[in-house]
Amino acid sequence: MGKGDQKSKKGKIWRGTFGKSRSRKNNSQREHDKK
To answer: Which residues form the signal peptide (predicted)?
Structure first.
């Protein structure tokens, strides 16, 4: 479950994608700071 993992939340934040573990409405955190 690292940065490159497509299914984890951290991986989705790193890639800039959205899905079940990372939905657009629930995440109002700063996504670009985690890169």
So the answer is: none
